[in-house]
Amino acid sequence: MKMTYKERALRVTHPVTKKLLEYMESKKTNIGLAADLSSQEEIISLIHKVGEHICVLKTHIDIIENFDPSFTKRLQHLAEQFGFLLFEDRKFADIGHTVLQQYQGGMYRISEWADLVNAHILPGPGIVEGLKKVGIERERGLLLLAEMSSAGNFITPQYTQSAVELAMEHADFVVGFISQQQITEDPRFVHLTPGIQFQDTQDVLGQRYITPEIAIHMHRTDILLVGRGIYRSTTPKEDAIRYQQAGWNAYLSRITQRRCISL
Length: 263
Ligand code: S5P
Known about the structure:
Blueprint: H1 5-11, H2 15-27, E1 31-34, H3 40-50, E2 56-59, H4 70-82, E3 85-92, H5 96-104, H6 110-113, E4 116-119, H7 125-135, E5 141-145, H8 157-169, E6 174-178, E7 190-193, H9 212-218, E8 223-226, H10 228-231, H11 236-262
Parallel strand pairs: 1-2, 1-8, 2-3, 3-4, 4-5, 5-6, 6-7, 7-8
Bound molecules: 6-sulfanyluridine-5'-phosphate.
């Protein structure tokens, strides 16, 4: 992507993408926190420590024990206060009729509070159409899982290309991708990349990590989703800052390099 976050913020029309790029530019961060903790209080306390350093808070709402609906209200309040978007990593994967209900109903009422959700494209276009029926009038955004970080996953280049095509057809609702690299140069779409740590290692269950530098500079993605690298740290604020600086510097050097090449 040759354009800066700021240039893209001025150009995009989807309200969620615009807000996201504006937060990134003004807070100078391309870090999303994967807050995979099972206690509401722990998540709230973590937000107070790292909220000013992130542009997205990614949740797995269904791993929280004793979920209380007031929790998502508190998340919305903190998102407004610190300036980040809420992304529920629900990974919808069913027929349109079912995902519509999962998105708007049940005990989590995801569409009422999550600015962003994501979906696998395996079921075909109906999954996007079903989610869109709920999300579009609330001005929500959808991310398509176009690639995964896990070892041995079954996603092929052709499948990834189909995600790009589906996104183009529904650009009024699809705002980007979960991917390991930039998969389209279309500036309307943001790329969020999980599997980020300072050491490019692997965990015992097949998670593969790449560094902030590789993801942002070499693979040209936009946002780094960091989980255990921050929430498992004994000094999460300091580590969030380290990721923020690494991610932002990688972005700046990419932009500068590209500008020099094009001069
Ligand atoms: O391909 C993927 C897609 C996602 S959304 N690989 C992933 O790891 N994720 C999510 O990113 C995963 O569900 C988890 O919440 C986060 C990575 O966490 P970490 O602790 O490995 O940084």
